[in-house]
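[scheduler] slot 2 assigned
[scheduler] job type: sequence-to-structure, two independent chains
[scheduler] chain ordering preserved from manifest
[runner] begin chain α
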Amino acid sequence: MGDMLSTKVSAEIAAREGVDPLQLDRPLYDVIDVGALERLVETAGRGDGAFEVEFTYYGYDVVVDGSGEVTVTGDPAVGDTDGESADQPATGR
């Protein structure tokens, strides 16, 4: 299985950011334990696959399900969505 999952996530984020995946200055493993995520998905894939992990990366909501499907939602450019992406302090109004 290797790091296919992390490659998938990085590619999705990079596409949204309009950059090459190698240009992302914050590696995925800084945000989430990639090895643990891949083991979880691998294990869930053997069961009924009813499994989801959600985390935030570059201000996007990333959901990985038991089949290894990656879904990226959210728009970090929109500052005041619902106040959940409090990674950066708000500047101005």
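[runner] end chain α
[runner] begin chain β
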Amino acid sequence: MSSAVPHNRRRTPRIPLEVPAQFMLQQSAPILVKTVDASIGGVCIVTSQSVAPGSPCMIAFDLMTQEGQRRINAWGVIVDVRQQGDSRYHCRIAFTDMDTRSRYFMRQFTNDGE
């Protein structure tokens, strides 16, 4: 077994963000989850159920911005799921689409002015 350090595939840095969120898989009811971190390219959530990588999803959460609390609405795909020691799962979601206002506030949050 190799002891090499795993390659970091993230294009954008993630910033710690622990807020409640609503998470939905296709044709399912919203599930209350908690975010772990976020970037302009995606978010990590903690959930009590395993989700298959490749699954399309939607996530909504409130973000505190310079203009007050704003709702972020994003669509994405599950790219990685890791079981934690406490029967919870960390699910990494890559954003595939986001409404214009959500993208504006996420860029503000991450200081990404691209």
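[runner] end chain β
[qc] chain β: Strands lie at 15-16, 20-25, 31-39, 42-47, 56-65, 68-83, 89-98.
[scheduler] slot 2 released
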